[in-house]
Amino acid sequence: xxxxxxxxxxxxxxxxxxxxxxxxxxxxxxxxxxxxxxxxxxxxxxxxxxxxx
Length: 53
What we know:
The chain has one domain. The chain is mainly α and 53 residues long.
């Protein structure tokens, strides 16, 4: 769960795309789903300790 939030955050180095979006573009949705990768919508990303509660 935490990794999905961190890896859904867009990165300037990735052309403002998230690491999950880049992974899906390279390896496909099927593998991402098998690995449990879920892209969190930008307005729902939590990068604070609140996520651990």
